[in-house]
Design brief:
The structure holds 2 protein chains of 2 kinds. Chain A has a 6-stranded parallel β-sheet with strand order 3-2-1-4-5-6, sandwiched between helices. In chain A, helix 1 links the parallel strand 1 and strand 2. The longest helix of chain A has 17 residues. Chain A is globular. Chain A is of the alpha/beta class. Chain B is mainly alpha-helical. In chain B, strand 2 and strand 3 form a beta hairpin. The longest helix of chain B is centred in the N-terminal third of the chain and has 28 residues. Classes of the chains: A alpha/beta, B mainly alpha. Chains A and B meet through helix 11 and strand 14 of A and strand 1 of B.
């Protein structure tokens, strides 16, 4: 596919690299010359110089033949204008805009057709959602969400003390006490699609589908005690902190925010009346101590500087905070971070790029049948989300009468607000969302491909 | 300082007051009360001369009008208005001295309702009408009325300073973009509510003249009544109507406007309104439980408690019963309600619920800042951040309020009354209540105080009604220094 990316910032280059690996042709638009040179040297992309919101520049970049435009400059307004202009030139173009200002959120969703937007990405919000999910279920290694957050595939590690150890698939539901489905197992670096007689062993990483409300039950049966976080300390008062505080407070979690800039503190306090806002340096250990870091259930380092975040997290680890999360801006630092024990690491730009790449994959799968594609089990399996449409075969037929291709598994069926783990008598109808898990990549282009 | 503009406002205010004396004069004239009819005519003529003179002196006034002019203008207007408004009382010979008459009219304009007379039923009808009407006029503010009726002056924003200085509340704002329209809306709401109140009273078989005067008094939350026993002689229906309307006039008038334009949500979510209603219902409950032994039935106790709470929190202070005889707990609740007062932007007096809210929030913040010095908190009301200056002003207001109270108590204690009497007299004057407890209780009056004390209390009333600073600035040397 032909993809145009505007904004040669960190998101732009990371995204370009990701899309190049997927085999797409990438054109970058940016106004600054120095950055362009370094990017050309590093990646095999075409670079167009100019203002990305101007029609001439867009035409130069070949917007007429492009399939997708990603507007990822630092300015929301420019991104919007860029997408609207490009969509006006080429109505078949898909557009993705990076919009970060929360004040625009409502109008973007209400007027996305006016702006000509296919998708909006908000890295800060995504990062906050990710951190929120990690804080609520500390036992999961990863969580992938489908069907607008109603279905999930979670990754778990089976250790020796776990009740699921040495349990066969058929006995699994009795042990856990609620319906879950193991759709994949990663054993010794190899992905296995489990059958009924398959028995779980220590060291396995399993991929489980369950309705979001059953996740707590699942964790309990695993022997992981999820002590609900009650007090969380956030260092740094950028947008991500605002989003995260709002999410945490919705669940009654007490949030303490530390920010260095006094004016920012006042804005935070006005926006977040329930949060305990402190004005001070988050690396000041006396400040953290006097505000009860040792009694916090979690510490999240969210300042704009990676170095600072790492120091804060290290300090949090040494003072015995049970759950430490570090935000990193530079993905290159990730290796380094893995050698330190910093707890969970969240990289907003990575998350944003992944979301866009997922969209591109779904787009590439044609006809829009696949809503999203997630790689799981170290990229050996794919979880694909489909919407059941007019042309879908076998609608309203019980699953036991349908023959599927080998290595294909229907992991969940979502009817409206209700998510179901498929059984022999389950059926799907038009409008439902299906999550299908398969071995290998790119096997499924359309939903009808799953039928034998 | 733009003296010409201020003179022009005074001239206009005086003319307006003279026009409003015409109905009072007509009532006196038609009832054959010669002395008071003559008093009204003389006063109107005198006002006409003064007003005309001032109007002549302010020709070619420039439109430059700042906050300080606004403040001074409001302060002076109210004093001049009181000085001339009391003339009918004095000239008719119903009041023994000019000071007594002045005290009475200040009490009226500031909607206090404190009187120096022990027998009001013998007063001429015209005088009774003027007493009650002064409260109605003072309730919403004379300058606001002036803003509503004088022709719009184009793009000048100076009128905002007048509204700010005259309307109660820490943070006065317009409800529609145009100042004049805001004033008109406020007065239309005020007139309509007053008429509805009057109709309810007439339906309850109250004579028309009494209904008119009572409605004026209730609307301004003043408390001048036409009977010596205040509301006690009227039927329970009339008292219940008055209970409800007193409480209604204590609500911020912009709430009614929001209701009219269909923004119910923001009205129900209004923190000040919630506090106000919560205080009313909570106090009624506690007082009913406390006084139920004094009355025949629980219903009777509830009736009196509700009337008294509504009457005191809005600073109206009609009486249906001598609450001075109630147990100490009930009496203390009433004293507390005296201080809290009604909502900002209403006709009620007192410290105002919104300021109580801001004080409580401010104190809570400071307490937390003592515990952790780095704590940052922006105080919010109804979900919006409050400007730090408004919070500081509220604390300053509270300090000024307490200081004025202490100085006033000190000054009037020369007359030798008990501390309770003096304290409640000052509290009642500053909060525009009317009667206090003990020697100035609901069955007594202020006639025992010396002329000096009456002037002090009249000053307190004006300061309380205009929320201190428009009166204080008149004594500030900076204000009069030429720029």
């Amino acid at each position: 596919m032909n993809i145009i990316i505007t904004g040669d910032g960190r998101v732009g280059t990371t995204l370009a690299r990701g899309l190049l690996l997927e085999g797409h042709d990438v054109t970058l638009i940016d106004s600054s010359e120095t950055l362009q040179d370094s990017t050309t040297q590093e990646y095999d992309v075409l670079i167009v110089k100019g203002n990305c919101a101007a029609m001439d520049t867009l035409l130069d970049a070949g917007v007429k033949d492009a399939d997708l435009l990603v507007a990822a400059t630092g300015k929301d307004e420019i991104n919007l204008l860029c997408c609207t202009t490009a969509h006006g030139i080429n109505p078949n173009l898909h557009t993705i805009a990076r919009i970060r200002n929360p004040e625009y959120t409502n109008q973007i969703y209400a007027l996305r057709h006016v702006f000509g937007l296919s998708m909006v990405v908000n890295p800060e919000r995504q990062a906050a959602t990710e951190i929120d999910r990690l804080l609520k279920y500390p036992g999961f290694l990863r969580r992938e969400t489908f069907a607008k957050g109603k279905a999930e595939i979670v990754e778990l590690r089976i250790d020796g003390k776990c009740k699921l150890c040495n349990v066969s698939m058929t006995a699994l539901n009795n042990v856990i006490g609620c319906k879950v489905l193991v759709c994949g197992v990663l054993r010794n670096g190899r992905a296995i699609a489990p059958t009924g007689q398959f028995t779980l062993r220590e060291g396995d990483r399993i991929f489980v589908t369950a309705p979001t409300e059953n996740l707590t039950k699942l964790l309990k049966s695993m022997g992981i005690i999820t002590r609900r976080a009650r007090r969380v300390m956030l260092c740094g008062g950028d947008r991500i902190s605002v989003y995260l505080t709002q999410m945490l407070e919705k669940d009654g979690i007490e949030v303490t925010l530390i920010e260095q800039d006094e004016e920012k503190c006042k804005l935070l306090s006005a926006a977040l009346p329930r949060a305990h806002v402190l004005h001070g340096d988050a690396t000041d250990q006396a400040l953290l101590e006097s505000n009860g870091i040792s009694t916090c259930d979690a510490l999240v380092a969210l300042t704009g500087l990676d170095e600072l975040n790492m120091i804060i997290s290290l300090y949090g680890q040494t003072s015995g905070v049970p759950h430490v999360i570090t935000k990193l801006g530079r993905i290159e630092n990730r290796r380094l971070v893995d050698t330190l024990s910093l707890g969970s690491v969240v990289a907003p730009k990575d998350l944003c790029c992944n979301a866009i790449i997922r969209y591109v994959r779904a787009m590439h799968n044609q006809t829009g049948a696949a809503i999203s594609v997630h790689s799981i089990a170290e990229d050996q399996m794919e979880a694909v989300e489909f919407l059941v449409g007019e042309q879908t075969l076998h609608c309203d037929t019980p699953l036991k009468h349908i023959t599927l291709k080998p290595n294909v598994l229907i992991a969940s069926i979502t009817h409206g607000a209700h998510m179901e783990i498929p059984a022999g008598n389950s059926r799907f109808t038009k409008g439902d969302t299906l999550v299908v898990v398969t071995n290998g990549r790119g096997l499924l282009q359309q939903l009808n491909d799953i039928f034998a | 300082m733009n003296y010409k503009m201020i003179r022009r406002f005074i001239a206009q205010i005086l003319a307006v007051s003279a026009v409003f004396m015409i109905p009072a004069w007509l009532i006196s004239w038609s009832c054959g009360e010669e002395a008071s009819a003559d008093a009204f005519v003389q006063t109107m003529l005198l006002i006409g001369v003064i007003s005309g003179g001032l109007a002549f002196l302010c020709k070619g006034a420039s439109r430059v009008f700042h906050a300080r002019e606004g403040m001074v203008c409001v302060g002076i207007c109210w004093i001049v208005l009181s000085l001339t408004g009391c003339l009918p009382f004095y000239l008719s010979g119903e009041y023994p001295s000019y000071i007594d008459a002045f005290f009475e009219i200040v009490s009226g304009f500031t909607t206090t309702g404190a009187t120096t007379l022990s027998d009001v039923e013998v007063l001429p009808k015209g005088i009774i009408y003027w007493r009650c009407f002064s409260q109605w006029l003072g309730g919403m503010g004379v300058l606001v009325l002036l803003l509503a009726i004088i022709p719009s002056t184009g793009g000048n924003g100076y009128t905002m300073h007048l509204l700010r200085a005259e309307s109660p509340g820490p943070d006065v704002g317009k409800i529609v973009p145009r100042m004049k329209k805001t004033a008109v809306i406020l007065y239309v709401l005020y007139v309509v509510l007053t008429i509805i109140n009057m109709l309810f009273l007439v339906v309850g078989k109250m004579p028309l003249f009494e209904a008119l005067c009572t409605a004026f008094s209730t609307a301004g939350t003043g408390g001048f009544s036409i009977k010596n026993d205040s509301m006690a002689g009227y039927s329970p229906y009339l008292r219940n109507v008055t209970t409800v309307f007193m409480a209604l006039f204590g609500v911020n008038f912009s709430c009614y406007y929001l209701l009219l334009i269909g923004q119910f949500r923001s009205v129900f979510k209004d923190e000040e309104l919630r506090l106000y209603l919560g205080l009313i219902f909570g106090s009624i409950l506690l007082i009913t439980l406390n006084i139920r032994g004094l009355y025949d039935s629980l219903w009777d106790a509830l009736h009196h408690a509700a009337f008294q709470v509504s009457s005191i929190i809005t600073s109206t202070c009609y009486a249906t019963t001598n609450y001075d005889l109630w147990p100490s707990f009930a009496k203390t609740i009433l004293m507390c309600l005296m201080v809290t007062g009604a909502c900002a932007g209403s006709t009620g007096g007192g410290f105002k619920c919104i300021r109580i809210l801001l004080l409580v929030k401010g104190i809570r913040r400071n307490t937390r800042q003592v515990i952790s010095p780095q704590y940052v908190k922006v105080i919010r009301n109804n979900g919006r951040a409050i400007n730090e200056q408004v919070v500081t002003n509220t604390f300053a207001y509270f300090a000024a309020y307490v200081m004025l109270m202490i100085v006033s108590i000190l000054l009037i204690s020369i007359d030798g009354y008990s501390f309770g009497t003096n304290f409640s007299a000052v509290l009642a004057s500053m909060n525009n209540m009317g009667p206090g407890i003990e020697a100035v209780g609901p069955t007594c009056n202020f006639s025992g105080y010396s002329a000096f004390s009456k002037l002090v209390l009249a000053f307190d009333m004006l300061a309380g009604r205009l929320e201190l600073f428009p009166i204080f600035v008149l004594f500030s040397r900076d204000m009069w220094r030429r720029r």
